[in-house]
Amino acid sequence: MNLSKELFAASDIAVSQCMNLKQSESVLIITDEFSRTIAYALYESSKKITEKILLVEIPQMKTNGEEPPKEVSELMLKYDVIFCPTSKSLTHTDARRNASQNGSRVATLPGVTEEIMIRCMNADYNRIYERTFKLCKLMEQTSSIRVTSKLGTDITMPIYGRKSFASSGIFHNKGESGNLPTGEAYLAPLENISNGKIVVDGSIAQIGLIKSPITIKVENGFATEIIGDEEAKKFISLIEPFGLPAKNVAEFGIGTNDKAIITGKIIEDEKSMGTIHIAFGDNKSMGGSVRVASHLDVLVKNPTVYFDKNIIMENGNFLIEL
After folding, report:
1. Could you give the CA distance from residue 202 to residue 225 in angstroms, rounded to a whole number?
2. Within a 10 A sphere around the Cβ of 297, how many other Cβ atoms?
3. Which of 29, 54, 69, 125 is 20 to 30 A away from residue 95, measured at CA?
């Protein structure tokens, strides 16, 4: 497999800087046929530090949040550091949650391409760390988040008492996990009480870039109506098989990676500064109560964001110093 020097350099950052892999530690890499390139680069970078490495290829999963094979879930309990470059996300699975609870440091890389890896892993992760944790602290001092946009988004999501999470790209302590590349502050809004509408003009997980805006009506914490063209129909087809739990307002997040751009790959799009994302479906990974094998993010560009009555972002520009 002929891989670029730039990809190897990005993988070195992931292994050494982001995960702080040590010679005494073991590494598990879980991949599928569509993510082999990233997996191999991570394997080679890990091999520079430790000999205890296992690379496992699994069949491509159908949805984000689908559990990997039982044998792989059991393997995940036995390794210090786990990389998951897969086409669908393992982030919101019991397998990942159990591994984290057991002390493994886990980096999930759903849908990451070589281009995304090179561009976003070369960000300043120390700055992303500071920026992300500052936003998390502010969210935990907030009772309710409101998001508006010029296209018509206007949704209010109560969050009081909810813990925020920093996917900062620095996962050095036991049990820490997040995406790579990364850069987002996020949490689970309280179930059953978010209301309003979201006009999606960026991208949607498993669909890609949006050609024409999609409107999602939210009532009492669930998506009740999805209006739009072909992408709206695709979104409905992804959610419907999982029933009402897949319509749960699961996540609110803000991008904090200044190198990320909107490409149609949600793993990068949702990290882009000047955007927010809201996910529907599973929220157990972030302290919620809904477990379903579906977690789909939708992206809003250039939003205005209120933490209670304080405007922290206006038309995609932060109004606070980060």
Report:
1. 19
2. 25
3. 125
N-term to C-term CA, the chain: 41
d(CA 185, CA 47): 31
Q: Where would I find the H helices in 190-250?
A: 230-239
Domain 5-121 in CATH 3.40.1830.10? The answer is yes
Distance between CA atoms of 271 and 107, rounded to whole angstroms?
Answer: 15
Predicted TM-score (pTM) of the model is: 0.86
Inter-residue contact 68 to 56 (CB < 8 Å): no
With beta carbons less than 8 A apart as the criterion, state whether 88 and 163 touch.
Answer: no
Residue 141 CA to residue 279 CA, distance in Å, equals 22
Neighbours of 195 (CB within 10 A): 15
Give the whole-angstrom CA distance, residue 315 versus residue 81: 39
Q: What is the DSSP letter of 244?
A: G
Q: What is the DSSP letter of 308?
A: T
Cα–Cα dist 130/247, whole Å:
33
List pLDDT tens digits, range 149-182: 999 999 999 999 999 999 999 999 999 999 999 9
The ranges assigned to domains in the chain are 5-121, 125-318
Which of 27, 32, 15, 14 minimizes the C-alpha distance to 68? Answer: 32
